[in-house]
Design brief:
Strand order of the largest sheet: 1-2-11-3-4-9-10
Distance between the termini: 62 Å
Number of strands: 11
Largest sheet: 7 strands, antiparallel
Strand content: 25-35%
Order of helices and strands: HEEEEEEEEEHEE
Helix content: 10-25%
Length: about 170
Amino acid sequence: RMTEEIAGKKRIVKSIRKGILIRAGTFALTLWIVFTFVFGIRIADGNDMAPAIREGDLVVYYRCGDFANRDSVVYEADGNVYLGRIAGCEGAVIGKTEDHRLTIDGRIQPVQPGLGIYSETPAGDLKAEVTVEPGRFFILGDCREESADSRCFGTVEKDRIRGKVFLLWRRRNI
């Protein structure tokens, strides 16, 4: 009789363990699907977007949807992953002035203290006027003097944009 009770308790414990393992596996699979196809996570590894996004900050981005001017995005270019802000969409005309300041649609890129941009944007490596083609974007880092962006490697294809930043977690200086 005692062995029957022990065997019954063992079956109950085994059933509970199996249930926990199934729930944990389902939870892990769900997280993997969500963070592979819907969201992405990246740690900022430079100050291209300073002061809005600083080196070491954790960035969560949304992989689905459309992109528009002023969206902060995570994108790939020249075999690297960058953070930047869309400055020109399809049809935008990118150029430079005689004193090598960047223009978009004929307007010199303004000082934008709200974004931490305190000086006019240098044209960088931009050689000639460029019109942004359909399905491509002109992307700039907020820290214009230090960032590698579309001024260096040209416009970025839509499928090279990993997603739009929607959550930022400061991981230092707290």
